Amino acid sequence: MKTQFACIILFLPLLFSACSSEKNTFTNRLYHNTTSRYNAYYLSNQKIQELENIIKKNHKEDFSQVLPVFYPIDSATIDQHRELLKDARELSSKAIDWHRISKWVDDNYYLIGMVDYYQADFDDAINTFKYLNVNSKDRNLRHRSLIQLMRIFIDLKSYDDVVFVIDYLSKESRINKENRFHLFKTLAYYYDSQQDVEGKIGALDRALNYTKDKKEKSRINFILAQLYQREGLDAQAYNLYNEAQKGNPPYERSFFAQLYAQQVAELNRSKDVRRVRSYYDDLYKDSKNKELKDVVLYEKALFELKQDEKEEAVNLLIRAAQEQGNNPIQKGYIYQKLAEISLDFDKDYRAAKYYLDSALMNFRPIDPAFDQIQAQKGILDDYVTHFETISKNDSLIRISKLSPEEQELVATNFIKSEEERLMREAAAKEKNKSNSGIFDNLLAFGGRGSGESFYFDNAVAMQQGAIDFTRNWGNRPLQDNWRRSNQSFATSSGEVEEEREIAEEESNEESIFEQIPTKESLLSQIPNSEEDVNRLNNQLEIAYFELGKLLFFDFKEPELSIDNLESLITSYPNTIKKPEAYYILYLAQKERGGNADLYSQRLNREFPESPFTFSVNNPDRVSGNRAYIASSNQYKIAYELYQNRNYTEARKILRSTLEEYPLTRNTDKLLLLDVMISGKLDDRDRYKTRLETYIQNTENPELLKMARNMLIALTGEKPEIEKVAEELPIEAKTDTEADLEDDEEVEESPYKENPNQTHIFVIVLEPEKSRDAKSLLGDLESFHNANFSNSRLRTGNMNLNRENAIYIVSPFNNAEKALEYRNKFMESFTTESISGEDKANSFLISIENFQELNKRKNIEEYRNFYKKTYK
């Protein structure tokens, strides 16, 4: 006992002396190396690995695209698991502070750099990895730091810095196998960012040689197989898809590897169509593929398209859209393909628009297809808006000319047709249920299956019952004792009623009663006054013109364009859009080899001073930015002549400029100056007529205001007028010679007003506030469930730049829907994560403008546009 006590007494001084972080003795180093490595470093590294596994688990692979080299880092995931990074930083910081003589100090610095990287503190991360490269004595850690530094530069698109790091590493010797694996994988990431497929393949192929991780090998083999397949190298792709099935990969990746392997090997070239179809049918029936049935049907539809079986392909795609798949992105591709078929085969732009709407709901803004669909959808949105305006208004105007009895008959027949449609849909559902299997049919005879013997299992019977009910009693709410005059006595407990209301709110299915309009609601839409008819006619006039213009310039459909513009001129011969309609008809007839001269003659006869007339008379005119610059210089000369009262010479220059450069951004300014000269040289009536015509046709708001004030000054309708006739602040700016290099006209603002485009709602926070706003996404979800349960809104967040983190709610079909959301948000949304000022600073933005904002990173620049456009 005394001996043991003596040993303890002797050991204690050694222990306390070892705890010192200053003395560089063997005992000290042993103690600090051990505690630093197996305590702080180990635990910190575990936290970071846990986060990386979460990022990997949360990522939903899109097998229709080449898989990403690295799993994308979702800022929402980082925010949700910020505590892991906080703990990792604290542990590594303590290891550095408490164990300064440990050889694991640099390793802990590396982990702190990784924490900064995942938190998007890129400057701090870059400084840490640069510090390690310069100061660390651990060669392997220096190499690993340089490789991570290269990945950050790729993320930031600092490609000159990437090349510098690559050159630096190429001169380094004795890079170990693990670092070589990370190096070649990061090089593949770099080549991918440069769209260098050959370089990416080479880098991934080299990376395979430096890893023994079977799961990692499986994924890289799959990526290589996808790349080879897209390059048309089917034999190599086939072998790699087979290799990708090794290493116990996730079932979904294994499924796609098997599917794509069969495609490149046999299916795409097979002449035995029945065998290929049988292959897809077997995949569909396989119980293991229960959550992948939509994929199987989609792939079979693509095969049927190659066989020119369009109808069968469409049926398969519709079935695929109805399957309960586990990947929303797949649904996006299904709807996108349906839209593509509607456009390419049927020219059904309306169906294509609605298919693309559905596709967009299933893609995320970071998905490659999202931007492509958004760009394509804009003109389709415009088409449907104008098409449906024509269909609706034309019908309403025709019905308004009928007698009240005839109007009631039309409403009755419409309701009857809607009832028949719903019955057909119910019958189709019942037919599907009747094919659900022999066991289900056997249960039906026992009263427990989906047979027709049980009323609530018979969709047709329920639909007919609902229709009969609404005929007799109208659209009554779903509640008990609805026939009682005093319903307060109907329930014995308010809690029961409250529970029923909650259950009703949770149901997202539209009530059958709401699908069938009442006769009163239909009749109320019919215009019953001359003012209402005129309003509908004005909308029709605009819709015919815009649709005709859209069909010619955007859809390249001259025949359909001619039909709509001819309808415009026939139905509305005094339309203010007549000169431009003639001009488009001239172009359309010219393109189809028709009688273009007819419209050229009409322009010259009816609108000799129109810029569209000048344009058809000068077919070899200069256009683009050169025309804009030349017309700007001519305008400046004419304006100086006008100020010097040399009106005749100014008019000559204006007319010659309009003839030589008829359609530029200066056209409205040139025309207004010409009108002002008319006020000096022509009689009062001529001047007034020209002013009125100009006001009807110009789309420039500032010039429109000036012209209106000039008309007020002429007619004396308003006592207080603005003096603008002599002080027209529209002098053209001289453009630089560099502008000549670009034939595209320069936009005054990088953002465009597009109210019919899909919009998103944005909350902007500073990084510090964003880190504290842990519950914001959850609060938004609760807000949506309570107020927008049927809108399928999605939330997310990202770092726009170093100063701003943004939270996004999407999608909204147009600006009007987005404004409704923001109003409700300002009125009802409550959270502790943001202040009232942050709420007030939220804004709306179209998808196209969001892409521009994401490039420019300037929030205030967009806010200025937003205040002018949306408020």
TrEMBL record:
<protein>
    <recommendedName>
        <fullName>Tetratricopeptide repeat-containing protein</fullName>
    </recommendedName>
</protein>
<feature type="compositionally biased region" description="Acidic residues">
    <location>
        <begin position="737"/>
        <end position="748"/>
    </location>
</feature>
<feature type="signal peptide">
    <location>
        <begin position="1"/>
        <end position="22"/>
    </location>
</feature>
<keyword id="KW-0732">Signal</keyword>
<feature type="region of interest" description="Disordered">
    <location>
        <begin position="731"/>
        <end position="753"/>
    </location>
</feature>
<feature type="region of interest" description="Disordered">
    <location>
        <begin position="484"/>
        <end position="514"/>
    </location>
</feature>
<dbReference type="InterPro" id="IPR011990">
    <property type="entry name" value="TPR-like_helical_dom_sf"/>
</dbReference>
<feature type="compositionally biased region" description="Acidic residues">
    <location>
        <begin position="495"/>
        <end position="512"/>
    </location>
</feature>
